[in-house]
Amino acid sequence: MSGAVQTVALAYCSGAGHTRRLAEHIATGVEAAGARAVLVDVTAMTAADWATLAAAHAILFGAPTYMGSAAAGFKTFMDASSDIWAGQIWANKLAGGFSVGTFPSGDKLSTLVQLTVFAAQHGMLWVGQQEIGAPVDAGKPDINQSGTWLGLGATSVRDKSLMISSGDAETARRFGTRMAAAAQRWG
Ligand SMILES: Cc1cc2nc3c(=O)[nH]c(=O)nc-3n(C[C@H](O)[C@H](O)[C@H](O)COP(=O)(O)O)c2cc1C
């Protein structure tokens, strides 16, 4: 295990703010574990942002699910990363993913599969989530309500001051902590 502080980048896009809010909850969990979280809006990439991703120990990819797949802004970022793919610049970094939809399923899994394949093309090592919540674990009634393990799934709430439910927010913090711990272990 490395003693250095690990950096976990959260590369996301967000149309109405829900995915950004989810990323902020994940970042809280990352920092609670003693790692550094950096949010990168992939719809406004600068040279500094690409450098941030290249320097990160782990990258979490986040996109809202639009029409059963990652929103177009995220797909543009995916396509723009082809030079990085060619040089395998992100190879052997840890990766994970998160998505928000209006519906508890909402075909978010399709987006997470897309993000997983994207990470695989980059030679990255995927870390899923491990929370068993409702309805199996009565002690975790609001955790992992989407029943998603490939990555983090959240369901948007209409209260714009909240955007993400308290259960999904806590699931996100746990996911961030898990990713930070994995990055520290992987070194
Ligand atoms: C064009 C469009 C397509 C959408 N398609 C889906 C979908 O397939 N499944 C779903 O559950 N929600 C869908 N939604 C809802 C969004 O996923 C949801 O509002 C989410 O919170 C948006 O995240 P954002 O605020 O980060 O953009 C769609 C929204 C838009 C605008």
Automatic annotation (TrEMBL):
RNA-binding among keywords: no
GO annotations of cellular component type: membrane
Keywords: Flavoprotein, FMN
InterPro entries xref list: Flavodoxin/NO_synth, Flavoprotein-like_sf, FMN_Rdtase-like_dom
Pfam name, any one: FMN_red
Every Flavodoxin-like domain range: 8-154
Any one GO molecular function term: FMN binding
UniProt-recorded name of the protein: Flavodoxin family protein
